[in-house]
């Protein structure tokens, strides 16, 4: 008995199945319309589900590294910061951050380094909050000056003012610009205009040639209820100092002085309202 050739058997089977199967058309891959993030946000190695842009670090629970290691980490971070290597600053400081007890300098320096990287808002906010919460006696004036800048970068004006006040206590002899800087920050904090004016007056005492300190202090006090009399003294003193020197400013200054003076004048007395039957004679 002759057996069909393998090729013939294959042909018969294909014919029985309806011919050669046609492969499906390739599926078109749709291109994403979302921009590609070429710098993905680094995840927490201890918790890959935490995103530093929206999730703060977990509550502190681990013990702080030994004092010698902490000092070495801070020194290495200072060298890396001087070299402009913020990534290295973060790398050497993560082991001492969020530990018990807290290292204010470690967390402050880490926050300042992380603040320069996009996508770490929650993490930066967390470490800034903890860095400004305590006044570290081991932190110098430069630390608090840089911390104030980082806080301002996160729109934390009130905390930045605290940092600048701590900086002042560490300066052997603060200058006019130091006081004026604090005043400038306080002017961005609601209900702190009076303090801002006082720091400007201190700045003027340090540098009497900066007459704008006197003017700005007067303008600030004129906005504080109950301080118009002090504002008027400062503004009039400023007017007398610039008379003949800055004539182009005199008109606007006189208008402001008049406005402040009007706040001190009592409101004109008004006649009492006459009710029904007022001034009527009594019946006989």
General description of the model:
By secondary structure, the chain is mostly helical. It has 2 domains: 45-172, Serine Threonine Protein Phosphatase 5, Tetratricopeptide repeat; 175-264, Serine Threonine Protein Phosphatase 5, Tetratricopeptide repeat. The protein has 12 helices and no strands. The chain has helices at residues 6-16, 67-82, 86-93, 104-114, 121-133, 141-153, 157-170, 176-186, 193-206, 211-221, 228-242, 250-264. It is elongated and about 70 Å long. The relative contact order is 0.05. It comes from Nannocystis pusilla. This is Tetratricopeptide repeat protein. Residues 35-57 have a biased composition (Basic and acidic residues). Residues 22-64, 259-284 are annotated as: Disordered.
The best one-word shape is: elongated
Rounded mean pLDDT is: 85
Q: Count every helix, treating DSSP H or I runs of 4 or more residues as helices.
A: 12
Uncertain ranges: 5-41, 276-284
Total DSSP E strands: 0
CATH class of the largest domain: Mainly Alpha
Q: State which percent range the strand residues make up.
A: under 5%
CATH topology of the largest domain: Serine Threonine Protein Phosphatase 5, Tetratricopeptide repeat
Output the helix-strand order: HHHHHHHHHHHH
Biggest sheet features: none
How does CATH name the architecture of the largest domain? Alpha Horseshoe
Helix proportion of residues, in percent?
40-55%
Number of domains: 2
């Amino acid at each position: 008995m002759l057996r069909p050739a393998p090729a013939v058997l294959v042909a018969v089977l294909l014919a029985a199945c309806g011919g050669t199967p046609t492969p499906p058309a390739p599926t078109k891959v749709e291109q994403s319309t979302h921009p590609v993030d070429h710098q993905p946000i680094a995840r927490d190695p201890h918790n890959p589900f935490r995103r530093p842009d929206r999730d703060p670090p977990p509550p502190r629970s681990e013990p702080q590294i030994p004092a010698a290691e902490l000092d070495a980490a801070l020194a290495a971070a200072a060298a890396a910061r001087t070299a402009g290597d913020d990534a290295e600053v973060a790398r050497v400081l993560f082991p001492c951050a969020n530990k018990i007890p807290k290292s204010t300098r470690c967390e402050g320096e880490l926050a300042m380094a992380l603040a320069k990287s996009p996508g770490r808002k929650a993490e930066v906010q967390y470490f800034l909050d903890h860095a400004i919460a305590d006044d570290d006696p081991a932190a110098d004036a430069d630390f608090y000056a840089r911390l104030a800048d980082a806080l301002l970068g996160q729109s934390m004006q009130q905390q930045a003012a605290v940092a600048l006040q701590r900086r002042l206590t560490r300066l052997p002899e603060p200058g006019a610009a130091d006081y004026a800087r604090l005043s400038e920050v306080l002017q961005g904090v609601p209900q702190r205009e009076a303090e801002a004016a006082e720091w400007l007056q201190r700045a003027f005492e340090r540098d009497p040639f900066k007459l704008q300190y006197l003017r700005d202090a007067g303008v600030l006090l004129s906005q504080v209820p109950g301080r118009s009399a002090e504002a008027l003294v400062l503004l009039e003193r400023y007017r007398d100092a610039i008379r003949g020197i800055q004539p182009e400013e005199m008109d606007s200054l006189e208008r402001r002085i008049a406005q402040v003076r009007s706040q001190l004048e009592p409101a004109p007395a008004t006649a009492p309202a006459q009710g029904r039957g007022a001034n009527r004679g009594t019946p006989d």
